[in-house]
Amino acid sequence: MVKLLTVLFLGLSPAAYGYVCNTVPDPVAGPHNDIPTRFVVLSRPLRVGDTVVINGKVVPDVQAKKRLSIDLLVGTKPVYYKTVSTLHFTAQYDLNQTSIGDYQPNKNQVFREEKVLPLAFTFDPFSLRVKVEADGYSIYVDKKFLYKLKYFKENYSTVQTLYFQNVDFHTECFIDCKEEKVCPNTGGGEKTFIVGQRVFREVDGTCPA
Description:
Layout: H1 2-10, E1 19-23, E2 37-41, E3 51-58, E4 67-74, E5 85-92, E6 97-103, E7 112-118, E8 126-133, E9 136-141, E10 144-150, E11 159-165, E12 167-168, E13 191-196, E14 199-204
Parallel strand pairs: 3-13
Antiparallel strand pairs: 1-14, 2-11, 3-8, 3-12, 4-5, 4-11, 5-6, 6-7, 8-9, 9-10, 13-14
GO molecular function, one term: carbohydrate binding
InterPro entries: ConA-like_dom_sf, Galectin_CRD
Protein name: Galectin
């Protein structure tokens, strides 16, 4: 209550005290014409202690190989296949498997595949959580640990774009940006970046799973 009264008295917007919320951007032209593509740009590059949370589901009625992919790209102006991806996560429904790796631009546009696991998603809504650590990304699906991807040639420090192909964020649950989200904060500057329920939020602190 004291925090809220302070905000009202000072006339500050939510962004001034560690909470930013905006509607998920419209689709953009991606590498595949028949697969919906979106991306969001973070307010700053990733840091150790940050968390990325993706709440969504595979786009229905998309027949192009039935694959869903999520990338953590360097920079703020991504050009797919020409931009480094420090995490390339793909749910391959056609092969019933999950592929985890990364990408360095190359003439053959081949991704480095480090680990292949059984398919981690169904066609129901999912929650993917990526914890940024000093030596790699710890990946969780629906609160269960899946895999830790160690950094290859580049780490988290220049990542500022989350890139999505075939991910539906317009689920039945809608988040009202006027409802502030507060998460435990150590004072270390960590943030939780959340994409889902039609919005993209940045919250100071580490939001629980």
